[in-house]
């Protein structure tokens, strides 16, 4: 069970808050998503798909996702546990 | 007497899913929109601006009462984390926001980008700070992007009738509800009473469609009668909810029998 906490959702332009990303999962695999600020998207490492965030609204209809090609995948971390999310976030942002 | 706007806004959900629409995306390195989605976007662009005004006009404000009842039946309370599926322009989400207060969280999910943009702009145009606890997600009701046991309550307003796979939606809703929590689904009532049915059809033909015609949306609203005919009765909805995994389900008729509200509880409820 997830704990939402008392932190208000934070929106920075078209960005997405980490808090929001923590309550969402991939609509297909139901596995956690990680934020990629570089592409302003949510990454499902479990199935290699990224979902866009537009005007602060995550687009998690399965057909909105796009398959991450091998080159993009090699720049990403495949770990999906919460601790890895933080590391991936930093790597993606660099 | 009806929430024609919400129903019309959900027209796209009645269209059959194209191959791959609810499965893994097919394009590599670029996004390819499904044609059906494009058509739905055009439809929503056309209808979205008049949604709320037509709601008030056609129901003489009654839809607000039915929605407040739906919120009450959901059991949502202060501090809860709640979800509104098929949120459209956000009517139920805003009511939920007031109910759960600033210590709670509301997620509004809808298939339509334009509906969500209107919901978002309504949110930001309001002065109530409690609306800051609402987050909008574009998603498909049959593939909810939330972990199991995420929410203290779920509402669906005029959405269940229009989704492609009602059983799957209820299964997903059951999955994301915390044990012991409820879903409250408000919609038109498919009555077994011939008088109610006739009156409902008469209202659509002689009140709703002419009103919608003013905006050039007569065809969209004529769809209502067929969609209600194809919907499930209260008893059938109760059975569907039980098949979806809920431990109890009850359908209440409101609005003089024109509307109905399904309330179902996920297992684990201790009275």
TrEMBL record, chain A:
> What segments bear the compositional bias annotation Basic and acidic residues?
83-94
Q: Tell me the lineage of the source organism.
A: Eukaryota, Viridiplantae, Streptophyta, Embryophyta, Tracheophyta
Top-rank lineage group of the source organism = Eukaryota
Of which family is this protein a member? Belongs to the PREY family.
- Entry protein name: Protein preY, mitochondrial
Signal sequence span is: none
Gene3D superfamilies under this entry? Answer: 2.20.25.10
Annotated region (Disordered), positions in chain: 65-94
Q: Which InterPro entries match?
A: Trm112-like
Automatic annotation (TrEMBL), chain B:
Q: What class of enzyme is it?
A: transferase
Q: Which family does it belong to?
A: Belongs to the class I-like SAM-binding methyltransferase superfamily. MenG/UbiE family.
Q: Which gene encodes it?
A: MENG
Query: EC?
Result: 2.1.1.329
- Its function? Involved in the biosynthesis of phylloquinone (vitamin K1). Methyltransferase required for the conversion of 2-phytyl-1,4-beta-naphthoquinol to phylloquinol.
Query: Is NADP among the key words of this record?
Result: no
Alphabetically sorted, this entry's keywords are: Chloroplast, Methyltransferase, Plastid, S-adenosyl-L-methionine, Transferase
Q: SUPFAM superfamilies from the entry? A: S-adenosyl-L-methionine-dependent methyltransferases (SSF53335)
From the Swiss-Prot or TrEMBL record, state where the protein is found.
Answer: Plastid, Chloroplast
Can you state which reaction this protein catalyses?
Answer: demethylphylloquinol + S-adenosyl-L-methionine = phylloquinol + S-adenosyl-L-homocysteine + H(+)
A GO MF term: 2-phytyl-1,4-naphthoquinone methyltransferase activity
Name-wise, this protein is 2-phytyl-1,4-beta-naphthoquinone methyltransferase, chloroplastic
- Among the Pfam families in the record, one is Ubie_methyltran
Q: Name one GO biological process term.
A: methylation
Q: Which Gene Ontology CC terms are recorded?
A: chloroplast
């Amino acid at each position: 069970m997830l704990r939402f906490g008392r932190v208000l959702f934070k929106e920075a332009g078209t960005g997405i808050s980490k808090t929001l990303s923590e309550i969402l999962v991939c609509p297909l695999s139901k596995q956690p998503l990680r934020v990629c600020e570089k592409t302003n998207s949510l990454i499902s490492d479990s199935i290699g798909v990224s979902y866009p965030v537009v005007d602060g609204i995550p687009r998690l209809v399965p057909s909105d996702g796009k398959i991450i090609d091998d080159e993009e995948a090699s720049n990403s971390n495949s770990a999906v546990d919460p601790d890895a999310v933080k590391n991936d976030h930093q790597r993606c942002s660099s | 007497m009806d929430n024609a706007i919400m129903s019309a806004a959900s027209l796209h959900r009645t269209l059959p899913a194209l191959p791959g629409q609810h499965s893994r995306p097919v394009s590599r390195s670029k996004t390819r929109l499904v044609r059906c989605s494009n058509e739905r976007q055009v439809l929503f662009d056309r209808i979205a601006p008049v949604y709320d005004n037509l709601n008030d006009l056609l129901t003489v404000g009654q839809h607000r009462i039915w929605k407040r009842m739906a919120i009450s039946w959901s059991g949502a309370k202060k501090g809860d984390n709640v979800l509104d599926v098929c949120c459209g322009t956000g009517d139920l989400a805003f009511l939920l926001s007031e109910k759960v207060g600033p210590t709670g969280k509301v997620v509004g999910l809808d298939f339509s980008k334009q509906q969500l943009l209107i919901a978002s702009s309504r949110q930001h145009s309001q002065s109530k700070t409690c609306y800051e606890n609402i987050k909008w997600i574009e998603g498909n009701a049959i593939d909810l992007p939330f972990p199991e046991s995420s929410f203290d309550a779920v509402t669906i307003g005029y959405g269940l009738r229009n989704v492609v796979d009602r059983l799957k939606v209820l299964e997903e809703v059951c999955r994301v509800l915390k044990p012991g929590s409820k879903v409250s689904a408000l919609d038109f009532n498919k009555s077994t009473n011939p008088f109610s049915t006739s009156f409902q059809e008469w209202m659509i033909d002689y009140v709703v469609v002419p009103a919608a015609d003013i905006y050039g949306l007569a065809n969209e609203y004529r769809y209502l009668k067929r969609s209600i005919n194809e919907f499930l009765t209260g008893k059938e909805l109760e059975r569907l909810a039980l098949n979806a995994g809920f431990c109890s389900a009850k359908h209440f008729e409101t609005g003089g029998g024109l509307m109905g509200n399904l309330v179902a509880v996920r297992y684990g409820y201790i009275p």
